[in-house]
Write a structure and sequence with these properties.
single chain; 292 residues; alpha/beta; 7-stranded parallel beta sheet; 8 helices; 35% helix; 11% strand
Length: 292
């Protein structure tokens, strides 16, 4: 199923659907997330830049890839094994007259992260923007239900990968480059059923702040985005149908957000519009007020 920016279904009317696998397949969703902001007209903010985006096959990652392409960037996406979703992201980026490469692999493994960076540099010569976005989550009713295997898996995908990819990418990033990490509102307000996931998202905030100070003298900015409830494949892949149907209705705006509503935060942080901002977190979360 292809993205259609003209589809104006009410974003708060979500279907009761589920999926059996993490992190989910966008092509199989009954109601497609909206990846393309209909009012976004590119102005060349990222002209000539090369962006590497993890989890770029679907959800927020796809919306960021398309928004970056609209602003003139060439794109490399990494993804786990959702090949059809990755092909669709590639199609959408190329529709903006930019190039897009897709690399599959488990970024919880350092060797895979190194391979992704090596392939990106071999094809593009450099990395100007690194978006550490991929994540997974596995709800459990109690801490005692979280196995050692689940704990390690969640941390490997959500935070170890950021260390691995950033470490591999840094030698190929020059002054003026930008790193953007995807954290979550759960890092600030917690989540009783997502203890390991929210813990990784808190770690991402600390990673962002510390890395920003570490790289300041090199002229590389590091920031993060903390989305609230956003309609992505991760949601039906995580929660039972009845919970999916009410997803996002507990925020002040009363609805889940769409990936297109989050993507422009990444454009801002990737571009010179945010040239004096580093170590900070943006909060597209439907009006939930959280501490900094």
């Amino acid at each position: 199923m292809h993205d259609d920016a003209s589809d104006k279904q009410r974003p708060d009317d979500l279907p009761a659907e589920d999926q059996e696998q993490q992190p989910g397949v966008q092509a199989e969703m009954q109601q497609q997330p909206r990846s393309i902001h209909p009012e976004h007209i590119g102005t060349g903010k990222l002209e000539g830049k090369v962006a590497l985006i993890t989890g770029g096959d679907s959800g927020i990652g796809r919306a960021v890839a398309v928004a970056f392409a609209k602003e003139g960037a060439d794109i490399v996406i990494s993804y786990l094994n959702e090949h059809d979703d990755a092909k669709e992201t590639k199609r959408l980026v190329e529709a903006e007259d930019r190039s897009c490469s897709a690399i599959a692999g488990d970024i919880g493994q350092e060797s895979i992260c190194q391979t992704i960076v090596d392939k990106t540099v071999a094809e593009r010569g450099r990395i100007d923007i690194l978006v550490n976005n991929a994540a997974e989550q596995h709800p459990q009713q109690s801490l005692t239900d979280i196995s050692a295997d689940q704990l390690e898996r969640t941390f490997r995908t959500n935070i170890f990968s950021m260390f691995f990819l950033t470490k591999a990418a840094l030698p190929h990033m020059q002054r003026g480059a930008a790193i953007i990490n995807t954290t979550s509102v759960t890092a600030y307000k917690g989540s009783p059923e997502l203890l390991d996931y929210s813990s990784t998202k808190g770690a991402i905030v600390a990673f962002t702040r510390s890395l920003s100070m570490s790289l300041a003298e090199q002229g590389i900015r590091v920031n993060a985005v903390a989305p609230g409830p956003i309609w992505t494949p991760l949601i039906p892949a995580t929660f039972p149908p009845e919970k999916v149907e009410s997803f996002g209705k507990d925020v002040p705006m009363g609805r889940a957000g769409q990936p297109e509503e989050v993507a422009m935060s990444y454009v801002f942080l990737a571009s010179d519009d945010s040239s004096y901002i580093s170590g900070q977190v943006l909060h597209p979360n439907g009006g939930t007020v959280v501490g900094s």
